[in-house]
TrEMBL record:
Pathway: Amino-acid biosynthesis; L-methionine biosynthesis via de novo pathway; L-homoserine from L-aspartate: step 1/3; Amino-acid biosynthesis; L-threonine biosynthesis; L-threonine from L-aspartate: step 1/5; Amino-acid biosynthesis; L-lysine biosynthesis via DAP pathway; (S)-tetrahydrodipicolinate from L-aspartate: step 1/4. Residues 266-340, 346-408 form the ACT domain. ATP binds at residues 7-10, 173-174, 179, 184. GO terms for cellular component: cytosol. This is Aspartokinase. PROSITE patterns: ACT (PS51671), ASPARTOKINASE (PS00324). One of its GO terms (molecular function) is ATP binding. It comes from the Bacteria. The keyword Transferase applies. Pfam families: AA_kinase, ACT, ACT_9. It is an enzyme of class 2 (transferase). Substrate binds at residues 47, 74.
Length: 408
């Protein structure tokens, strides 16, 4: 008998029939003698619908009120799933994040979990009930409803598994595991049996939306056994996120490709090349609470230099405004940018022991006539910024160039 936390995403609970299907799976695990805590997302499309509704009233929705609105999506699903389980003769009880007391900070729309009270859930499990918890939401110290950022139900699931010291956290979604890249973009993508925690962290942080980055961070911090599986298949082992590299198998050079359509590039041209300039440019951006990702500064010439960096696409107009002010203060020649870009990244721990990975990547893109606008590397990843129209092509040709469709 084990304590299992299962998380079901939006598509998996997208209709009454699918919710009944989830209930059947939960009931099956329960009948095997396991204790179950089930985390659910809003029905697919619901969070988008609620955000659009809010924007009809306020184009830049008040963050606290937006959280009040979007958290209702998950509240509907927990009630429906509890009913579906009762219909199948399984005792179940649903809780919102606030009812469990998933305590978060007060950063509305991107709150971080600080503590989870497990007393109520334990009592229910001891009483033989299935506990159903609304994903994506929490409550701050003042009692305000908060949400954890898009895709945040993954993080709710893993955080609950950590708090309850669950034996396993199973993320059920609409694909049967983590693939070498998004199978919607590359149909030849291959399912991975395992992926190292380090690689999963990179893929998630570079835009692969199969798992929210914070859920992977949580799993690492608290050593949660994490598995990604399909809610549409009866059998299947899914993909296990592993903490130790299996040294008996030779590592492929590249394990996966991630991409992100959600960034925009900003250039600050002709700034005086002197100490403190990076801080003068990026300090005000940070003060405006805008995350900066890739940063490139050119070697100075004639006493001036150029700066480029990326920001989330949604923050692009605001970032440009901040930089128009900065331009006046630092005496830059020009501020420009482009929000029609994408970032494509190759990831693999095998990169550590192989040379020529970068040149293969750049050659492959060059052969397709794809211009690289920015490059950044770390020990186990190489990212490039490209014109967004090349995204699919770039991912497909890189997938092939690194032989990812073949069995490992
Ligand atoms: P859920 O609603 O269950 O949370 P998401 O839509 O957030 O599901 O995440 C699942 C989707 O992630 C898949 O349908 C797939 O298109 C996409 N995806 C992106 N990268 C990958 C990858 N490397 N492996 C599998 N799926 C991926
Ligand atoms: N419903 C939320 C979203 O669409 C959270 C989640 O599904 O993980 O982002
Ligand atoms: Mg998701």
């Amino acid at each position: 008998m084990a304590l299992i936390v299962q998380k079901y995403g939006g598509t998996s609970v997208g209709s009454p029939d699918r919710i009944k299907n989830v209930a059947r799976r939960v009931a099956k695990f329960k009948a095997q003698g396991h204790d179950l805590v089930v985390v659910v997302s809003a029905m697919s499309g619901e969070t988008n619908r609620l955000i659009a509704l809010a924007k009809e009233i306020q184009s830049q929705p008040d963050p606290r009120e937006l959280d009040v609105i979007v958290s209702t999506g998950e509240q509907v699903t927990i009630g429906l799933l509890a009913m579906a389980l009762k219909e199948q003769g399984v005792d179940a009880v649903s809780y919102t994040g606030g009812q469990v007391k998933i305590l978060t900070d007060s950063a509305h729309t991107k709150a971080r979990i600080q503590h989870i009270d497990d007393a109520n859930m334990r009592a229910d499990l001891n009483a033989g009930k299935v506990v159903i918890v609304a994903g994506f939401q929490g409550v701050d110290a003042q009692g305000n409803i908060t949400t954890l950022g898009r895709g945040g139900s993954d993080t709710s699931g893993v955080a609950l598994a950590a708090a309850l010291k669950a034996d396993e956290c199973q993320i059920y979604t609409d694909v049967d595991g983590v693939y070498t890249t998004d199978p919607r973009v590359v149909p030849e993508a291959r399912k991975l049996k395992t992926i190292t925690f380090e690689e999963m962290l990179e893929l998630a942080s570079l835009g692969s939306k199969i798992l929210q980055i914070r859920s992977v961070e949580f799993a690492g911090k608290y050593n949660v056994k994490l598995r990604v599986l399909s809610s549409f298949q009866e059998e299947g082992e899914g993909t296990l996120i592993t903490f130790e590299e299996d040294s008996t198998v030779e590592k492929p050079v590249i394990s996966g490709i991630a991409f992100n359509r959600d960034e925009a590039r900003i250039n600050v041209i002709g700034v005086p090349d002197k100490p403190g300039i990076a801080y003068q440019i990026l300090g005000p951006v940070a003060d405006a609470n805008i995350d900066v990702d890739m940063i490139i500064q050119n070697v100075g010439q004639d006493g001036t230099t150029d700066f480029s960096f990326t920001v989330p696409k949604g923050e692009y107009p605001r970032a440009l405004k901040v930089l128009e002010e900065v331009k006046k203060h630092v005496g830059a020649r020009e501020v420009s940018g482009d929000d029609k870009i994408c970032k494509v990244s190759i990831v693999g721990v095998g990169m550590r022991s192989h040379v020529g990975v970068a040149s293969t990547m750049f050659r492959t893109l060059a052969e397709e006539g794809i211009n690289i606008q920015m490059i950044s590397t770390s020990e186990i990843k190489i990212s490039v910024v490209l014109d967004e129209k090349y995204l699919e092509l770039a991912v497909r040709v890189l997938h092939k160039a690194f032989g990812l469709e073949q069995a490992a």
